[in-house]
Design goal:
Blueprint: E1 5-11, H1 14-23, E2 27-29, E3 37-41, E4 46-52, H2 53-57, E5 74-78, H3 82-94, E6 104-105, E7 109-115, E8 121-127
Parallel strand pairs: 1-4, 5-8
Antiparallel strand pairs: 2-3, 3-4, 6-7, 7-8
Length: 135
């Protein structure tokens, strides 16, 4: 059985977050979604649990970070191409996300990213292994 990853992110407004990520093309698994949580499907083995802050708080004794003011995690997703990176950033911007930095082009690796409405940073990258520098 393959390992799965479930990234848990606190969100202030679950419906707003679901609408934002649906506009980016992500689907949700209704079996693991309700009025407190939504299971966003990234791939067959990667899921993001968008958890309403009061529900998220039940899993930790630590304060919930305000992602608009501090960064605890950078979520990075790979894309099939440079165009795929740019397309998802454009969708995020159109859906109300923020773009804080210019794309980075290292030749073999291209990256860009966005912030979702809760301030979580989503990095996107494309790697061209044929252009990878040799040792």
């Amino acid at each position: 059985m393959p390992q799965h990853i479930y990234v848990n992110l606190p969100v202030k407004d679950l419906e707003r977050s679901k609408a934002f990520f649906a506009a980016l093309g992500f689907d949700f698994n209704p079996q693991f979604s309700d009025d407190k949580a939504a299971c966003m499907v990234v791939s067959d083995t990667i899921y993001v649990m968008l958890l309403a802050e009061p529900f998220f708080a039940g899993f930790t004794d630590k304060p919930i970070a305000d992602a608009h003011r501090s960064t605890e995690v950078l979520v990075c997703l790979s894309r099939d191409s440079r165009a795929g990176v740019d397309e998802l950033v454009a969708k995020a911007k159109a859906a109300g996300g923020a773009v804080r930095r210019a794309p980075q082009d290292l030749g073999f690796m291209y990256g860009h990213g966005f912030e979702d409405p809760d301030g979580h940073i989503w990095e996107l990258s494309y790697m061209d292994m044929s252009a990878m520098p040799g040792d």
